[in-house]
Amino acid sequence: MADAQQTFALQRIYLKDASLESPASPMVFTKSWKPKFKVDLNTRSAFIAEKSHEVVLTVTLTAELDDENVLLIEVQQAGLFAIDGIEGDTLKQVLGIACPNLLFPYAREAVDSMALKAG
Question: Which of 34, 71, 88, 110 is a Cys-bridge partner for 63, taking CB atoms 3.0 to 4.6 Å apart?
Answer without folding.
Answer: 71
